Amino acid sequence: MYHKPVLLHESVEGLQVQPDGLYADVTFGGGGHSSAILELLGTNGKLFGFDQDEDAKANVINDPRFVFIPQNFQFLKNFVRLYGVRQLDGVLADLGVSSHQFDVPDKGFSTRFDGRLDMRMDQQQEITAETIVNTFDQQELTDIFRKYGELQQAWQMAGAVVASRQNAPIRTTNELKQVVAPFLARNRENKVLAQLFQALRIEVNQEMQVLEKFLDQCADVIKPGGRLVVISYHSLEDRLVKNFMRAGKASGVVEKDFYGRKLSPWEVISRKPILATADEVKENSRARSAKLRIAQRKADD
Question: Is residue 2 part of a domain?
Answer without folding.
Answer: no
